[in-house]
Design brief:
Mean pLDDT: 96
Order of helices and strands: EEEHEEHHEHEHHEEHEHEHEHHHHH
Distance between the termini: 44 Å
Shape: globular
Low-confidence stretches: none
Largest sheet: 10 strands, mixed
Helix content: 40-55%
Structural class: alpha/beta
Number of helices: 14
Bound molecules: flavin mononucleotide
Strand content: 15-25%
């Protein structure tokens, strides 16, 4: 099979296998839409609290809305209680009509883990089974997927038990981020565990006549990393997370690398214009002050590699209005335009 290929999750057909991972504080509607424009084949909302959904928290509902170009997407929920997860899944479907619900069994944050949710579920297969089954029961014909870690800590590697529980509960796909809860986001992800999961689910598929895919996440910072993960692990699809922050073009580049063997980096003016498109959408989805604060870190990333980028970033940290961003970047865009027209005349 070609490295870039379609993926099926239950009844969802995806044109390709390069996904945007759920990333709290980043993977909002505005950013997801920009990633799709640049070739992301499937997108996930950031994790949404089942408890908050059941309590009808309006802010939580905003997190799970569908972006304008999101033909299919997944809403990720987290929680330790099967009943609440079941009720939350009903609310998610009623409010969003999303095609897929993903269950977070990987978050390492102490506040989440101590409730029994997030990566605590990867080490508690019985609870993971009950939680996943409760969501599968609520989801009807919609796909339910599960995202796990490799285990709790170095001496408590539990991915196999977690995957088994997810499969028995009726999960339609499994994603693994092969770091332990104790690692957080430090050190390296262990792709050999991902490969072992691919083999494990492959055996399950053979004996159950199913075709459940496995998705990989962990240390994808360049297009070449995605190619390597697909080649080395046999994962059906891979997810960019930190590697896509401020660089939604990584999807375009990785698609080109997988299909043709090379890619052309996106020019700096296109990067900045994409930042403005994202800012505009974020203002519309939230409000100007919030959007401008949020876009500081994102514009800092968009301005990487641009001549005089360090000086720009010193100004970005003070930008509080759309006008502030325009003042910072309009002269830069103008300079690019002049340069482009001079090059055109040569
Ligand atoms: C700031 C941040 C927020 C994250 N939020 C979520 C989340 O809401 N749900 C989730 O399943 N994973 C979350 N993750 C994990 C990522 O989806 C991904 O699995 C992880 O970062 C490994 O990929 P990477 O090494 O390529 O960044 C988050 C990661 C980071 C760095």
């Amino acid at each position: 099979m070609e490295l870039y290929h379609p993926v099926r999750i239950k009844n969802i057909e995806l044109k390709g296998n390069l996904f945007l991972a759920p990333v709290a504080g980043y993977s909002d509607m505005a950013f997801r839409s920009v990633c799709i424009e640049n070739g992301a084949c499937f997108t996930y909302t950031e994790m949404v609290s089942a408890e908050a959904l059941v309590r009808k928290n309006l802010k939580t509902e905003i997190l799970m809305r569908r972006a304008y170009n999101e033909d299919v997407y997944s809403v990720q929920i987290f929680g330790p209680e099967p009943d609440i997860m079941n009720a939350a899944a009903h609310i998610v479907l009623e409010k969003t009509n999303c095609e897929c619900i993903d269950i977070n069994c990987g978050c390492p944050v102490p506040k989440i883990v101590k409730t029994g949710a997030g990566s605590a579920l990867t080490r508690d297969p019985d609870r993971l089974y009950k939680v996943a089954k409760a969501v599968v029961d609520a989801a009807g014909d919609r796909a339910v997927t599960v995202k796990i870690r490799s285990g709790w800590e170095k001496f408590q590697i539990t991915w196999k038990e977690a995957a088994q529980a997810a499969l028995e509960a009726g999960a339609s796909a499994i994603t693994i981020h092969p770091r332990t809860r104790a690692q957080g986001y430090e050190g390296h992800s262990d792709w050999s565990i991902m490969k072992a999961l691919v083999e494990f689910v492959g055996e399950w598929n053979k004996s159950h006549g199913t075709s459940i895919p496995v998705f990989g996440s962990g240390d994808l910072f360049k297009p070449e990393d995605a190619k390597k993960m697909l080649e080395e692990t046999g994962a059906d699809a891979v997810m960019f997370a930190r590697g896509a922050m401020g660089n939604p073009f990584i999807f375009k580049d990785a698609t080109s690398l997988l299909q043709t063997g090379s890619y052309q980096p996106v020019p700096p003016d296109v990067r900045i214009k994409t930042g403005f498109a994202e800012l505009e959408r974020l203002v519309k989805d939230t409000e100007e002050k919030h959007a401008c604060m949020e876009m500081r870190k994102r514009f800092a990333a968009y301005s990487k590699g641009i001549h005089n980028g360090a000086a720009l970033r010193l100004q970005i940290v003070h930008a509080s209005t759309v006008e502030d961003y325009k003042k910072i970047f309009e002269p830069v865009l103008q300079a690019f335009e002049e340069e482009n027209s001079q090059n055109g005349q040569l």
